[in-house]
Amino acid sequence: MVTKDDINELINIDWSKFPHIIFLSLFFVISRIPLLNIGFGSDPDAWRIANSAYDLKNFFVYHPSRFPGYPLPEYVNSLIIDYGWLATNSLTLILSLISVIVFAKILNELKIKNRGLIVITYAFLPILWINSAVTMDYMWALTFIMISWYLILKNKYLMAGLMMGLAISSRPTSLFLMIPFLYLVYNDANPKKNIFKFTFLAFLTSILLFLPLYLEYGLSFLTYYPFSISWMTVWSDASYYFGSIAIIVGIILIFYNLKNLYNKIVLEKDKMFIFLVISIFFIILPFIKAPYEIAYLIPAIPFVLLLLNGISKKKFFVIFCILLLLNSFISLNVTSSKNFIQNGVDDGLINSEINLQKNIVFNLKKIINSDINNSVIIYGEYLPFITYLYENSGEPIQPINMVGSGKLENNEYLIKKKNLRYVYLISLNDVLNFKKKKYKIYFVGNTTKNITKTEFGYDLTDYGCENIFRYLYK
Hints:
Elements: H1 4-11, H2 20-36, H3 44-59, H4 71-78, H5 84-110, H6 115-124, H7 126-131, H8 138-153, H9 157-170, H10 178-186, H11 191-217, H12 231-242, H13 244-256, H14 258-267, H15 271-289, H16 301-311, H17 314-326, H18 334-343, H19 348-368, E1 375-378, H20 383-391, E2 398-400, E3 412-415, E4 420-423, H21 428-436, E5 440-443, H22 445-456, E6 466-467, H23 468-472
Parallel strand pairs: 1-4, 1-5, 5-6
Antiparallel strand pairs: 2-3, 3-4
């Protein structure tokens, strides 16, 4: 029989110590195995990284997966891209496991209560679970952020600066975390000397890794691809990854404990809580400017967990963590709960992600092997998927109308023997011009149609464009 003492022991276990670290590592790796060999991920940016790595390895041409560039994962993945997505996903997995172990060490160093539960929540939180087994840069950046934090706690400022430079080179938005990290360094002994050490190596590392981008594009690489998105979509994505029930509980916990937070920051001047709040603020700030992916908030997760743990009652924090973890297996958002009641089906986030990735690769391979010719296919967000799949199928592809290396969305590709053109998005004027040239025009899925309507203000189906899946499965 499990006693209250057993539960408390589990909640406070130190996962950074032997043998617990072995059990955690094994379970972490085993839980990711179903995701490792089904594609680079469902996020098109993962396939953009694969394309960047592929071209660097095989053609000695470096173009960023997207601006402003994510050079570290692009460079490193180029070394193993010939072994496919199993290799690149496994590399992300290894880095993610390192982040879990380092986070456990941080909690141990800070003597955080409930540290066992916090580490388990961090390790198996659905959004981190998925992104720890795909060829994306989120977990790369988070891993180096965690290592930098730990090294600051151990007063190793040069190495901490190096790790922060690697974080910035993995995801440039990590630069915003220089501010809270400098606050940590400032509160140690010899602040001026240590700030110089940390800042110098952080900027030197990131400058060296971004240098190829500067040499190729000048300062024009410091941009990003703008996109229109509604805050309702942001909420829908957040509910999908975290569960709307868990989000609501988390918001209630924050507002209910505002007085505790005020006391920690203003009255007690607790340096750790000030650091946590500043870190969360500088992660949310760029997200508000460009809220395209809820995964942009991944770096905030360890800081939010520590903050809520520090200001909430234990039983409420435990409930919150359980709700977050359950979303991996039972989708805890209101819409999915209604569907489950009505239909009795609810795969949870992990199974949904596995099925999504399998279906994407299966359907896009079906397009490649189809008899479609003399046509234009508008791929939308699936363009980087199809680019990589074509390159690895042995089909000769020719890039045309290249607006700029790295700006994949503005490029057009030609399969000569089929007279088949595939593009990201096209304007209404382009549709009409292709129609005059007697091209049949297809679009890949309703997502591409919806993006086109948002970006260009017209409906593809109003001009005779056909959903390619209706053609393939009729």
